[in-house]
Amino acid sequence: MPDTGFLRQPQVLSFVPISKSTLWRRVQARTFPEPVKLSERVTVWRAEDIRRWIEQQGVAS
Q1: Digit-coded pLDDT (tens) for 37-47
Q2: How many Cβ atoms from other residues are within 10 Å of residue 45's Cβ?
Q3: ∠ CA 39-36-8 to the nearest 5 degrees?
Q4: Whole-angstrom Cα distance, residue 4 to residue 50?
Q5: Per-domain residue ranges of the chain
Q6: How many CB atoms lie within 10 A of CB 41?
Q7: Could you tell me if residue 31 is left (phi over 0), alpha (psi between -120 and 50 degrees) or otherwise beta?
Q8: What band does 58 get if pLDDT is binned at 50, 70 and 90?
Q9: Cα→Cα distances 36→7, 14, 60, Å
């Protein structure tokens, strides 16, 4: 995973073993980092946010 930059949904799901619907449920429940809308049809996540979320999951368990 890159240290910085943006990740599209397929890239996020390659690092986080959950389904697309679970991803969006967690975003809606605010238990997963909020995405950023770059345009009407392009949604991305900050790599830093995903990395931090993954690290927090290791601490939580």
Answers
A1: 999 999 999 99
A2: 23
A3: 85
A4: 10
A5: 6-58
A6: 6
A7: alpha
A8: confident
A9: 10, 18, 25
